[in-house]
Amino acid sequence: MTPDGIYKVKIANTRRIVTPVRVLNIASGREEVVSGLWDTGAEVSAVSRSLCGELDFPVNKQMVVNGFAGKVETKAVMAMTFPGDDEYAVVVQAVEAECIYEGIDFVIGMDIIEKGEFSLSREDGDLMLTFKFGELFTRLKSEWIIGHRENRK
User: Fold this and answer.
1) Which residues are 75's β-sheet partners?
2) Is 121 left (phi over 0), alpha (psi -120 to 50) or beta?
3) What phi and psi, each to the nearest 5 degrees, are found at residue 50?
4) 3-state SS of 72-88?
5) pTM, whole model, 2 decimals?
6) Which of 5, 71, 7, 69 minimizes the C-alpha distance to 38?
7) What is the separation of C-alpha 138 from the centre of its chain, rounded to a whole number of angstroms?
8) Are the C-beta atoms of residues 83 and 19 closer than 8 Å to each other?
9) If we measure between CA atoms, which residue out of 82, 91, 105 comes closest to residue 26?
10) Cα separation of 153 and 145, whole Å?
């Protein structure tokens, strides 16, 4: 948890920017911490079809998205996301993706990234991601998170 509202992490694989992200289905209370790919080329965030099934997301609506492979019709779901599995969250309308990268279940797109301050830097030779949570993020106290998890048991 970062009390100062800044998430900072060393990026192990410099070909992909991957960090933990907690994804919560607000309606059912189901949540999962998965690998999230920070993608500044993605206009919207995406959640894997398998994670949609695990968290039992209801379909919000059908939508068409443009990607590097052209237009694709897909489902949209409402998700609360906690980039970095931190205590700061934002609700987004993410699209369901049949296939992301192996081991990646969530794409953190520009709909999330633009709500904060995103930067990459080098420190002692290591690639570092720094994300300052903006005012559109809600800080949920650790007690709420723990209570939420206990209520689900």
Assistant:
1) 62
2) beta
3) -65, -40
4) EEEEEEEEEEEECCCCE
5) 0.83
6) 7
7) 14
8) yes
9) 91
10) 13
Contact 58, 120 (CB under 8 A): no
Beta strands, E only, 68-137: 70-83, 88-97, 106-108, 116-123, 126-133
Cβ–Cβ < 8 Å for 91, 79:
yes
Tokens 């907690």 locate to 22
Distance separating alpha carbons of residues 18 and 3, to the nearest angstrom? 22
| 87 token code pair | 């205590």
Query: How far apart are the C-alpha atoms of 50 and 80, rounded to whole Å?
Result: 17
Residue with tokens 């206990």: 150
Q: pLDDT tens digits for the chain (153 residues)?
A: 454 899 999 999 889 999 999 999 888 888 999 999 999 998 889 999 899 999 988 766 666 655 555 556 567 778 888 888 878 999 988 888 877 888 999 999 999 999 999 999 999 999 999 999 999 998 886 554 445 555 555
